[in-house]
Amino acid sequence: MEIRLRILSVFLAISFLGVLSSCKESDPIDHTISAFSNGGNERNMIVVISDIHLGADLAYAECKENLGSLEKLLKQIKAAPNVKELVIAGDLLDEWFVPATVNTYQGKDQADFVKRIAATNKGVIDAFNSIIREGKILVTYVPGNHDLTITAANVESIFPGINQARDAEQGLGTHSPADCPKMAIEHGHRYNFFCAPDPISNQDVAPGTIMPPGYFYTRIGVLSFTQNFPPAGDIMPVVTQNTSGNESQYLLFVYWNVWNRALTKYTITNKFDEKIIVTNVDGFNGAYSVNDLLPYQTTAGGLIDVNLYKGIQDTWAQRQILNHVAVNIPIAQAIANAAKSSESEDQAKNQYFLNPNSDKRIVIFGHTHDPKIIVSEDHYGQKAIYANSGTWIDHNSIANTTMNFVVVTLQNADASSQTVVKLYNFENEVVTKMAEDSLRY
Questions:
Q1: Helices vs. strands in the chain: H and E counts, helices first
Q2: Helix (H) or strand (E) holding 45
Q3: pTM of the shown model
Q4: Pair 346, 334: CB distance under 8 Å
Q5: pLDDT tens-digit profile of 290-313?
Q6: CB 84 within 8 A of CB 138
Q7: Which of 83, 109, 210, 300 is the 20 to 30 Å CA partner of 322?
Q8: Burial class of 159 by CB neighbour count within 10 A (0 to 12, 13 to 18, 19+)
Q9: Treating both helix axes as pointing N-terminal to C-terminal, what angle do 247-265 and 213-226 enclose, rounded to 10 degrees?
Q10: What is the crossing angle of helices 67-79 and 122-134, to 10°?
Q11: Which domains are delineated in the chain?
Q12: Burial code of 23-42, b = ≥16 C-beta within 10 A, e = fewer?
Protein backbone atom coordinates (compact mmCIF):
# COMPACT_ATOMS: atom_id res chain seq x y z
CA MET A 1 0.00 0.00 0.00
CA GLU A 2 1.47 3.29 -1.09
CA ILE A 3 1.84 5.80 1.77
CA ARG A 4 2.83 8.71 -0.44
CA LEU A 5 -0.58 8.85 -2.13
CA ARG A 6 -2.34 8.97 1.22
CA ILE A 7 -0.11 11.56 2.85
CA LEU A 8 0.12 13.97 -0.04
CA SER A 9 -3.54 13.63 -1.01
CA VAL A 10 -4.43 15.30 2.29
CA PHE A 11 -1.52 17.56 3.11
CA LEU A 12 1.15 18.02 0.56
CA ALA A 13 -0.47 17.74 -2.86
CA ILE A 14 0.49 20.71 -5.00
CA SER A 15 0.27 20.92 -8.81
CA PHE A 16 -0.38 23.70 -11.29
CA LEU A 17 -3.54 25.01 -13.05
CA GLY A 18 -3.73 25.45 -16.79
CA VAL A 19 -3.89 23.47 -19.95
CA LEU A 20 -1.77 20.34 -20.29
CA SER A 21 0.63 20.38 -23.16
CA SER A 22 -0.91 18.71 -26.16
CA CYS A 23 2.34 16.83 -26.54
CA LYS A 24 1.90 14.53 -23.52
CA GLU A 25 2.94 11.27 -25.11
CA SER A 26 4.84 8.08 -24.68
CA ASP A 27 7.92 7.95 -26.87
CA PRO A 28 10.09 4.93 -25.97
CA ILE A 29 12.24 5.55 -29.03
CA ASP A 30 13.49 8.84 -27.50
CA HIS A 31 16.64 7.40 -25.93
CA THR A 32 19.20 9.06 -23.64
CA ILE A 33 21.35 10.43 -26.44
CA SER A 34 18.48 12.68 -27.65
CA ALA A 35 17.31 13.62 -24.14
CA PHE A 36 20.72 15.12 -23.32
CA SER A 37 21.87 16.14 -26.79
CA ASN A 38 21.23 19.32 -28.76
CA GLY A 39 22.89 18.02 -31.90
CA GLY A 40 25.88 20.34 -31.51
CA ASN A 41 28.74 21.13 -29.16
CA GLU A 42 27.24 23.89 -27.01
CA ARG A 43 26.42 23.29 -23.36
CA ASN A 44 22.96 24.87 -23.22
CA MET A 45 20.84 22.20 -21.51
CA ILE A 46 19.59 22.33 -17.92
CA VAL A 47 18.39 19.14 -16.23
CA VAL A 48 15.99 19.47 -13.27
CA ILE A 49 15.39 16.59 -10.90
CA SER A 50 13.62 16.61 -7.54
CA ASP A 51 11.93 14.64 -4.78
CA ILE A 52 14.49 11.86 -4.57
CA HIS A 53 13.82 11.44 -0.82
CA LEU A 54 17.05 9.77 0.20
CA GLY A 55 16.62 8.24 3.65
CA ALA A 56 18.99 7.10 6.37
CA ASP A 57 17.25 3.73 6.78
CA LEU A 58 16.15 1.64 3.80
CA ALA A 59 13.68 -0.22 6.03
CA TYR A 60 11.22 2.62 5.40
CA ALA A 61 12.89 5.06 2.98
CA GLU A 62 10.76 5.90 -0.06
CA CYS A 63 13.61 5.61 -2.56
CA LYS A 64 15.23 2.18 -2.41
CA GLU A 65 14.40 0.20 -5.55
CA ASN A 66 15.16 3.19 -7.80
CA LEU A 67 18.60 4.00 -6.40
CA GLY A 68 20.47 1.95 -8.98
CA SER A 69 18.56 3.50 -11.86
CA LEU A 70 19.21 6.99 -10.52
CA GLU A 71 22.92 6.25 -10.32
CA LYS A 72 22.89 5.14 -13.97
CA LEU A 73 21.03 8.26 -15.11
CA LEU A 74 23.46 10.52 -13.24
CA LYS A 75 26.38 8.83 -15.00
CA GLN A 76 24.67 9.43 -18.35
CA ILE A 77 24.14 13.09 -17.48
CA LYS A 78 27.80 13.42 -16.54
CA ALA A 79 28.83 11.99 -19.92
CA ALA A 80 26.46 14.26 -21.88
CA PRO A 81 28.44 16.98 -23.72
CA ASN A 82 25.55 19.46 -23.91
CA VAL A 83 24.38 19.61 -20.27
CA LYS A 84 25.51 22.81 -18.52
CA GLU A 85 23.64 22.48 -15.20
CA LEU A 86 21.93 19.87 -13.06
CA VAL A 87 19.41 21.37 -10.61
CA ILE A 88 18.09 19.39 -7.64
CA ALA A 89 14.77 21.09 -6.86
CA GLY A 90 14.29 20.00 -3.25
CA ASP A 91 13.53 16.94 -1.13
CA LEU A 92 16.89 15.39 -1.90
CA LEU A 93 17.45 14.38 1.74
CA ASP A 94 14.48 13.25 3.83
CA GLU A 95 14.17 14.33 7.45
CA TRP A 96 10.37 13.90 7.56
CA PHE A 97 9.65 10.41 6.26
CA VAL A 98 10.49 8.65 9.52
CA PRO A 99 8.05 6.64 11.72
CA ALA A 100 6.80 8.68 14.67
CA THR A 101 8.35 6.34 17.23
CA VAL A 102 11.84 6.43 15.70
CA ASN A 103 14.52 8.80 16.98
CA THR A 104 15.51 10.47 13.71
CA TYR A 105 19.01 11.42 14.84
CA GLN A 106 19.50 8.29 17.00
CA GLY A 107 20.47 10.51 19.90
CA LYS A 108 23.11 12.36 17.86
CA ASP A 109 22.70 15.41 15.62
CA GLN A 110 21.77 16.50 12.12
CA ALA A 111 25.35 16.30 10.85
CA ASP A 112 25.51 12.62 11.82
CA PHE A 113 22.05 12.01 10.29
CA VAL A 114 23.14 13.50 6.96
CA LYS A 115 26.29 11.36 6.99
CA ARG A 116 24.13 8.28 7.58
CA ILE A 117 22.03 9.22 4.54
CA ALA A 118 25.23 9.51 2.50
CA ALA A 119 26.45 6.10 3.68
CA THR A 120 23.08 4.43 3.05
CA ASN A 121 22.87 5.86 -0.49
CA LYS A 122 26.57 5.80 -1.33
CA GLY A 123 26.22 5.02 -5.04
CA VAL A 124 23.92 7.98 -5.71
CA ILE A 125 25.93 10.35 -3.53
CA ASP A 126 29.13 9.30 -5.31
CA ALA A 127 27.49 9.85 -8.71
CA PHE A 128 26.45 13.39 -7.79
CA ASN A 129 29.90 14.13 -6.39
CA SER A 130 31.59 12.81 -9.51
CA ILE A 131 29.71 15.41 -11.56
CA ILE A 132 30.55 18.16 -9.05
CA ARG A 133 34.26 17.28 -8.97
CA GLU A 134 34.62 17.13 -12.74
CA GLY A 135 33.36 20.71 -12.94
CA LYS A 136 31.92 20.61 -16.44
CA ILE A 137 28.32 20.63 -15.20
CA LEU A 138 27.21 22.97 -12.40
CA VAL A 139 25.22 21.08 -9.76
CA THR A 140 22.74 23.30 -7.90
CA TYR A 141 20.68 22.33 -4.86
CA VAL A 142 17.43 24.09 -3.85
CA PRO A 143 15.84 23.21 -0.47
CA GLY A 144 12.50 21.41 -0.17
CA ASN A 145 10.19 20.81 2.77
CA HIS A 146 11.51 17.33 3.62
CA ASP A 147 15.02 18.80 3.90
CA LEU A 148 13.68 22.08 5.30
CA THR A 149 15.98 22.33 8.33
CA ILE A 150 19.06 20.64 6.86
CA THR A 151 21.70 23.35 6.91
CA ALA A 152 23.90 24.51 4.06
CA ALA A 153 26.93 23.28 6.00
CA ASN A 154 25.51 19.78 6.35
CA VAL A 155 24.62 19.63 2.65
CA GLU A 156 28.15 20.80 1.82
CA SER A 157 29.59 18.12 4.12
CA ILE A 158 28.42 15.33 1.79
CA PHE A 159 28.45 17.32 -1.48
CA PRO A 160 31.68 19.35 -1.37
CA GLY A 161 31.54 22.19 -3.88
CA ILE A 162 27.82 21.97 -4.64
CA ASN A 163 26.10 25.24 -5.55
CA GLN A 164 23.26 26.01 -3.12
CA ALA A 165 20.44 28.35 -4.16
CA ARG A 166 19.03 29.49 -0.83
CA ASP A 167 17.06 32.42 0.49
CA ALA A 168 18.48 34.15 3.55
CA GLU A 169 15.82 32.26 5.53
CA GLN A 170 16.42 28.57 6.23
CA GLY A 171 14.46 26.07 4.17
CA LEU A 172 13.67 28.14 1.08
CA GLY A 173 15.32 28.97 -2.22
CA THR A 174 14.62 29.97 -5.82
CA HIS A 175 17.08 29.53 -8.67
CA SER A 176 17.29 31.29 -12.02
CA PRO A 177 20.10 29.65 -14.03
CA ALA A 178 22.70 31.77 -15.76
CA ASP A 179 21.65 32.76 -19.27
CA CYS A 180 18.00 32.05 -18.40
CA PRO A 181 16.74 34.93 -16.24
CA LYS A 182 13.14 34.30 -17.30
CA MET A 183 13.12 30.90 -15.57
CA ALA A 184 12.50 30.21 -11.87
CA ILE A 185 13.14 26.85 -10.21
CA GLU A 186 11.99 26.18 -6.66
CA HIS A 187 10.54 23.28 -4.72
CA GLY A 188 7.11 24.92 -4.38
CA HIS A 189 6.41 24.34 -0.68
CA ARG A 190 6.49 28.00 0.38
CA TYR A 191 2.88 28.40 -0.86
CA ASN A 192 1.44 25.49 1.15
CA PHE A 193 0.00 26.10 4.63
CA PHE A 194 1.16 22.72 5.92
CA CYS A 195 4.63 22.65 4.36
CA ALA A 196 5.98 26.21 4.32
CA PRO A 197 8.47 27.15 7.06
CA ASP A 198 6.73 28.28 10.23
CA PRO A 199 9.09 30.48 12.28
CA ILE A 200 6.19 31.79 14.40
CA SER A 201 4.48 28.78 16.00
CA ASN A 202 5.78 26.80 19.00
CA GLN A 203 8.57 29.20 19.92
CA ASP A 204 7.74 28.67 23.60
CA VAL A 205 8.40 24.91 23.41
CA ALA A 206 10.95 24.79 20.56
CA PRO A 207 12.86 28.09 20.32
CA GLY A 208 13.99 28.81 16.77
CA THR A 209 11.91 26.08 15.15
CA ILE A 210 10.55 26.49 11.63
CA MET A 211 8.87 23.06 11.35
CA PRO A 212 5.36 23.32 9.89
CA PRO A 213 2.56 20.91 10.88
CA GLY A 214 3.13 18.78 7.78
CA TYR A 215 6.21 17.40 9.52
CA PHE A 216 4.11 15.85 12.28
CA TYR A 217 1.47 14.66 9.81
CA THR A 218 4.13 12.82 7.86
CA ARG A 219 5.66 11.22 10.96
CA ILE A 220 2.24 9.84 11.96
CA GLY A 221 1.49 8.76 8.39
CA VAL A 222 4.73 6.80 8.16
CA LEU A 223 3.96 5.10 11.48
CA SER A 224 0.60 4.07 10.04
CA PHE A 225 2.40 2.66 7.02
CA THR A 226 4.87 0.65 9.11
CA GLN A 227 1.95 -0.67 11.18
CA ASN A 228 0.23 -1.69 7.93
CA PHE A 229 -2.71 0.67 8.46
CA PRO A 230 -4.16 -1.21 11.42
CA PRO A 231 -7.58 -0.89 13.05
CA ALA A 232 -7.60 2.48 14.83
CA GLY A 233 -6.41 2.31 18.42
CA ASP A 234 -8.36 5.41 19.41
CA ILE A 235 -11.32 7.56 18.38
CA MET A 236 -10.99 11.07 17.02
CA PRO A 237 -12.42 13.53 19.58
CA VAL A 238 -15.37 15.40 18.10
CA VAL A 239 -15.08 19.15 17.55
CA THR A 240 -18.02 21.25 16.36
CA GLN A 241 -17.96 24.68 14.84
CA ASN A 242 -17.85 27.47 17.41
CA THR A 243 -21.21 29.24 17.57
CA SER A 244 -19.70 32.68 18.14
CA GLY A 245 -19.04 33.29 14.45
CA ASN A 246 -15.45 34.24 15.27
CA GLU A 247 -13.30 33.90 12.14
CA SER A 248 -10.26 32.56 14.00
CA GLN A 249 -12.42 29.88 15.63
CA TYR A 250 -13.88 28.95 12.25
CA LEU A 251 -10.40 28.57 10.77
CA LEU A 252 -9.35 26.35 13.67
CA PHE A 253 -12.40 24.20 12.98
CA VAL A 254 -11.30 23.88 9.35
CA TYR A 255 -7.84 22.92 10.61
CA TRP A 256 -9.43 20.23 12.84
CA ASN A 257 -11.26 18.84 9.82
CA VAL A 258 -7.95 18.32 8.04
CA TRP A 259 -6.66 16.35 11.02
CA ASN A 260 -9.90 14.39 11.17
CA ARG A 261 -9.55 13.28 7.56
CA ALA A 262 -5.91 12.39 8.10
CA LEU A 263 -6.38 10.22 11.17
CA THR A 264 -9.32 8.46 9.56
CA LYS A 265 -6.98 7.35 6.78
CA TYR A 266 -3.70 6.98 8.65
CA THR A 267 -4.84 4.75 11.45
CA ILE A 268 -2.38 3.74 14.17
CA THR A 269 -2.62 1.21 16.98
CA ASN A 270 -1.62 3.77 19.60
CA LYS A 271 -3.86 5.81 21.86
CA PHE A 272 -3.92 9.50 21.05
CA ASP A 273 -2.61 10.46 24.49
CA GLU A 274 0.53 8.30 24.16
CA LYS A 275 3.77 10.27 23.79
CA ILE A 276 4.82 8.40 20.66
CA ILE A 277 6.16 11.17 18.37
CA VAL A 278 9.88 11.27 19.13
CA THR A 279 11.38 14.55 17.97
CA ASN A 280 14.73 15.97 19.15
CA VAL A 281 14.69 17.83 15.83
CA ASP A 282 14.77 21.58 15.10
CA GLY A 283 14.33 22.75 18.67
CA PHE A 284 11.75 20.17 19.70
CA ASN A 285 12.76 17.86 22.55
CA GLY A 286 11.21 14.71 23.96
CA ALA A 287 8.05 13.12 22.63
CA TYR A 288 4.55 14.35 21.78
CA SER A 289 1.14 12.73 21.52
CA VAL A 290 -1.40 12.96 18.74
CA ASN A 291 -3.59 14.90 21.16
CA ASP A 292 -0.88 17.56 21.40
CA LEU A 293 -1.57 18.34 17.74
CA LEU A 294 -5.36 18.02 17.60
CA PRO A 295 -7.65 21.01 18.06
CA TYR A 296 -9.95 20.21 21.00
CA GLN A 297 -13.14 21.47 22.56
CA THR A 298 -14.63 20.88 26.04
CA THR A 299 -18.18 21.96 25.18
CA ALA A 300 -20.03 21.42 21.91
CA GLY A 301 -20.12 24.69 20.01
CA GLY A 302 -17.71 26.25 22.49
CA LEU A 303 -14.11 27.43 22.38
CA ILE A 304 -11.71 25.44 20.20
CA ASP A 305 -8.05 25.36 21.22
CA VAL A 306 -4.87 23.47 20.35
CA ASN A 307 -1.55 22.86 22.10
CA LEU A 308 1.11 22.65 19.36
CA TYR A 309 0.70 25.25 16.63
CA LYS A 310 -1.52 27.37 18.87
CA GLY A 311 -2.73 30.35 16.86
CA ILE A 312 -1.38 29.07 13.53
CA GLN A 313 -4.66 30.05 11.88
CA ASP A 314 -4.00 33.69 12.79
CA THR A 315 -0.38 34.05 11.61
CA TRP A 316 -0.55 32.98 7.97
CA ALA A 317 -0.29 36.51 6.57
CA GLN A 318 2.83 37.21 8.64
CA ARG A 319 4.26 33.80 7.77
CA GLN A 320 3.88 34.54 4.05
CA ILE A 321 5.78 37.80 4.46
CA LEU A 322 8.61 36.01 6.27
CA ASN A 323 8.66 33.35 3.52
CA HIS A 324 8.73 35.95 0.69
CA VAL A 325 5.41 34.96 -0.85
CA ALA A 326 4.88 37.68 -3.44
CA VAL A 327 1.09 37.50 -3.74
CA ASN A 328 -0.95 36.96 -0.57
CA ILE A 329 -2.92 33.71 -0.33
CA PRO A 330 -6.05 34.12 1.83
CA ILE A 331 -5.90 32.00 4.98
CA ALA A 332 -9.25 30.20 4.57
CA GLN A 333 -8.22 29.25 1.04
CA ALA A 334 -4.75 28.17 2.18
CA ILE A 335 -6.08 25.76 4.83
CA ALA A 336 -9.15 24.42 3.04
CA ASN A 337 -7.53 23.97 -0.39
CA ALA A 338 -4.04 22.81 0.60
CA ALA A 339 -4.80 19.26 -0.52
CA LYS A 340 -6.14 20.35 -3.91
CA SER A 341 -3.82 20.30 -6.88
CA SER A 342 -5.80 23.14 -8.44
CA GLU A 343 -4.84 25.41 -5.53
CA SER A 344 -1.14 24.97 -6.12
CA GLU A 345 -1.59 25.27 -9.85
CA ASP A 346 -3.25 28.61 -9.19
CA GLN A 347 -0.26 29.67 -7.10
CA ALA A 348 2.20 28.90 -9.90
CA LYS A 349 0.26 31.30 -12.08
CA ASN A 350 -0.53 33.88 -9.42
CA GLN A 351 2.94 34.14 -7.92
CA TYR A 352 4.80 34.29 -11.24
CA PHE A 353 2.87 34.53 -14.49
CA LEU A 354 0.02 36.83 -13.38
CA ASN A 355 2.15 38.84 -10.96
CA PRO A 356 2.97 42.21 -12.61
CA ASN A 357 6.21 42.35 -10.62
CA SER A 358 7.45 39.06 -12.09
CA ASP A 359 9.12 38.62 -15.46
CA LYS A 360 9.32 34.80 -15.35
CA ARG A 361 8.07 32.87 -18.36
CA ILE A 362 9.16 29.37 -17.29
CA VAL A 363 8.59 27.99 -13.78
CA ILE A 364 9.68 24.55 -12.60
CA PHE A 365 8.59 23.07 -9.27
CA GLY A 366 8.91 19.69 -7.59
CA HIS A 367 7.03 18.81 -4.39
CA THR A 368 3.81 17.35 -5.82
CA HIS A 369 5.23 14.12 -7.31
CA ASP A 370 2.92 14.90 -10.23
CA PRO A 371 5.08 15.41 -13.35
CA LYS A 372 3.49 17.56 -16.02
CA ILE A 373 3.84 20.49 -18.37
CA ILE A 374 1.13 23.18 -18.27
CA VAL A 375 0.91 26.09 -20.68
CA SER A 376 -0.72 29.40 -19.77
CA GLU A 377 -0.21 33.15 -20.26
CA ASP A 378 1.55 35.80 -18.23
CA HIS A 379 0.22 39.25 -17.33
CA TYR A 380 1.27 40.54 -20.75
CA GLY A 381 -0.63 37.81 -22.57
CA GLN A 382 2.61 36.06 -23.50
CA LYS A 383 2.97 32.29 -23.45
CA ALA A 384 4.24 30.85 -20.16
CA ILE A 385 5.24 27.30 -19.24
CA TYR A 386 5.02 25.52 -15.92
CA ALA A 387 6.73 22.13 -15.49
CA ASN A 388 6.73 19.79 -12.53
CA SER A 389 9.77 17.53 -12.22
CA GLY A 390 7.97 14.63 -10.55
CA THR A 391 9.74 12.23 -8.20
CA TRP A 392 12.12 9.30 -7.77
CA ILE A 393 10.30 7.43 -4.99
CA ASP A 394 9.84 3.74 -5.72
CA HIS A 395 6.06 3.76 -6.15
CA ASN A 396 4.28 6.95 -7.09
CA SER A 397 0.55 6.30 -7.05
CA ILE A 398 -0.22 10.01 -7.40
CA ALA A 399 0.73 9.98 -11.07
CA ASN A 400 1.52 6.31 -11.74
CA THR A 401 4.96 7.31 -12.96
CA THR A 402 8.30 7.83 -11.26
CA MET A 403 11.98 8.43 -12.08
CA ASN A 404 11.07 11.76 -13.71
CA PHE A 405 13.18 14.72 -14.81
CA VAL A 406 12.89 17.88 -16.88
CA VAL A 407 15.34 19.06 -19.55
CA VAL A 408 15.37 22.69 -20.70
CA THR A 409 17.31 23.53 -23.86
CA LEU A 410 18.02 27.26 -23.98
CA GLN A 411 17.35 29.34 -27.08
CA ASN A 412 20.20 30.94 -29.02
CA ALA A 413 20.56 34.23 -30.88
CA ASP A 414 18.73 32.93 -33.96
CA ALA A 415 15.30 34.60 -34.00
CA SER A 416 13.67 31.27 -34.84
CA SER A 417 15.26 29.47 -31.88
CA GLN A 418 13.03 28.45 -28.98
CA THR A 419 13.65 27.55 -25.35
CA VAL A 420 12.37 23.97 -25.22
CA VAL A 421 11.04 22.29 -22.07
CA LYS A 422 10.79 18.51 -22.10
CA LEU A 423 9.56 16.12 -19.41
CA TYR A 424 10.89 12.56 -19.24
CA ASN A 425 10.90 9.45 -17.12
CA PHE A 426 13.55 6.76 -16.77
CA GLU A 427 11.34 3.83 -15.90
CA ASN A 428 12.80 0.45 -16.89
CA GLU A 429 16.00 2.46 -17.42
CA VAL A 430 14.71 3.75 -20.76
CA VAL A 431 14.38 7.49 -21.30
CA THR A 432 10.77 8.15 -22.30
CA LYS A 433 9.46 11.56 -23.27
CA MET A 434 6.21 12.43 -21.49
CA ALA A 435 5.55 16.01 -22.60
CA GLU A 436 7.15 18.93 -24.45
CA ASP A 437 6.54 22.60 -25.16
CA SER A 438 8.56 25.68 -26.05
CA LEU A 439 8.59 29.45 -26.17
CA ARG A 440 10.90 32.33 -27.03
CA TYR A 441 11.48 35.20 -24.63
A1: 11, 17
A2: strand 45-49
A3: 0.92
A4: no
A5: 999 999 999 999 999 999 999 999
A6: yes
A7: 109
A8: buried
A9: 20
A10: 10
A11: 12-194+320-439 (3.60.21.10), 213-314 (no CATH)
A12: beeeeeebebeebbebeeee
